[in-house]
Amino acid sequence: MRDGVTAVVDVADVLRRADPGPRPSLHDVSAAIDEAVEIQARIDALEGARLLAVERARRAAAGCARTLLDEGHPELRRASAARRHELAARAFTADLATALRLPEQQASHLVDTARTLTGAALDASGAPGDGPGAEPALVGLCRGRFSMAHAHALADTLAELPDDARRQVESAVLPAAGHATLPQFRRLLRRARDRAHPVPLTVRHRAAVEKRAVYLDPAADGMAWLTAHLPAAQAHAIHDRISRAARTARDGGDPRETGQLRADAFAALLLAGPDDGGGAGAVPDLAGLAHRISPTVRVTVPVLTLLGGGPSDDADSRARGRVGGADVAELDGETPVDAETAVRLTAKAPSLRRLLVDPVDGTVLTADPGTYTVPAALRALLQARDVTCAFPGCTRAAARCDVDHVRAWVDGGPTVADNLTTLCRHHHVLKHQTGWRVARAPDGLLTWTSPTGRTHRGRPEPRRPETRRPRLRSSEVKRPEAKRPESKRPEARRRGPAPRTADPGPPPF
């Protein structure tokens, strides 16, 4: 029982509801998944109702702020109106946090989300639109269409934008909120924010670079987190160098897992000396191995960005996510970079790869379907097109994925872009060795069918209109040099280690 609310369950009921019965079938699996989906939708709807209650409480507290304060305190009598408002808000947040048994920071985040999404709903009610994007986010949450985590991510993005930009972001991302995983939704938000933001990306990047920093946080069992907040091009280059060092070590027979080798290469580059033999995982030769690798940054640059001028503050350019009249470039297909950085990286690239796309529908124009082996140029094209693994919900970068024939080569499937997709090794094996099946529709979208018969069609991320323009892709861009003086520590999201699955070895396809 919690504050008068009693859950009418006992141990026997819990065990009964978890038992599939003596002879479970695929139907039982499907029915249990259906129940879990229905329960999740009810939870999401209740989270929306909770947000409404929180916003109602915030407004009520604002209306009776004086009753939240100790008017007899001498310090309060001398306090400014802003100080009194702050103290009243703190008193309310503490009351909410203790009632919900949340840390005050988390309760404050809940209040901010409720206020932002309610404001967005009020704004939308004054300017109704058509289509699925016209439904305000708060209404969608109350109907159980997406999770509270999606709502928090959206509110965090909307909070710093003016009203016009908020509407653009909501209309761009809400149609995907119901079937995108949280990482995929955050990627959509980043892109939509960069297109709608009233300040050009080049200007924002210059300001963001001033916040670069490295900081240390303790972790359990004698471990710690070392976090670096860097310009995206440098971060991608660092990750590429230690990843390639890890893969080279694995190919040479090193028994450590790839994640462990990345961490050891990172530490070796910073710490290991020529005579250092110490410690578990401390292998000095990883430093030498990593130093011999020239890091690669994959940047997709619209050709008009290379041909354009300086940053533009034109409203039409901002609405289409452009800088200097051209489309925004991206690192590894997911991190927008400003035009200055894109041009600088391209200038340092020892080679460029041109990807030709149809000017009408954005599809890639390819040829040579008569060979099984995927040519390097076509593989690069697929990585630029797919961005990530094509399995629903997977966000592994396409550059680290296998290329798979949707219709098998032995069944007459040609080696062309329309019959190829990128799959991480885990989902590549899943497709071929389990009951999962995939088919490509005439419009190019994939339909995945699970062993229980559920279908998942297409990708959460719609094709970007910018891909209809010719693009240049640098296949090898060396890490730019940059100094990183100390700065204030930015807010950052802590991430634990990703769950690992055993590498099944080369795909038998």
From TrEMBL:
Domain HNH nuclease: residue ranges: 377-429
Keyword Nuclease: yes
Segments for region (Disordered): 445-509
SMART domains documented for this protein: HNHc
CDD domains: HNHc
Biased composition (Basic and acidic residues): 458-494
Pfam families named in the record: DUF222, HNH
Alphabetical UniProt keywords: Endonuclease, Hydrolase, Nuclease
One GO MF term: endonuclease activity
Record family assignment: Belongs to the Rv1128c/1148c/1588c/1702c/1945/3466 family.
Listed name of the protein: HNH endonuclease
Species this protein is from: Isoptericola peretonis
